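Hi all, a correction to my earlier message: I attached the wrong file for GSHR protein. Here's the right sequence:
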Amino acid sequence: VNVGCVPKKVMWNTAVHAEFVHDHADYGFETPGVKFNWRTIKDKRDAYVWRLNDIYENNVKKARIDIIRGYGKFTTDPEPTIEVEGKKYTAPHILIATGGHPAVPSDSEIPGASLGMTSDGFFDLEELPRRSVIVGAGYIAVEMAGILSTLGSKSSLLIRQDKVV
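and the right structure:
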């Protein structure tokens, strides 16, 4: 939600607006000089996500749910128990939000890998890249290529395939 779904939807909606602006003349609207500012949408998107984070955390606190940050694992204790950084917690209901981090190959595995970024890095971009290459054909890759292309980045989508389908 914080680093994928919600910020991606904001960017998707931004691209939808770009498409609408592009088509305005076909519907009789004159829109000369319309400019897109990446910095503006980045700042507004990031502020929106932080606001949502605060709302979620406040709702969790109102529900009297403890948030314990760190690396945890279930123990073999008879009651539901987790251990987080050496300290044990027991409760009738335990939720572990696993999160995740992408696995990035090294340059020795794939020459030039360090020149790329993951989808998380997309949200850190300070400006719209003039050109972009998206590696992969999953829905995230296709969405990112579409968003970047619609907003003005010359985008290419690389798909690994043993044969042409």
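Sorry for the mix-up. The mean pLDDT is 89.
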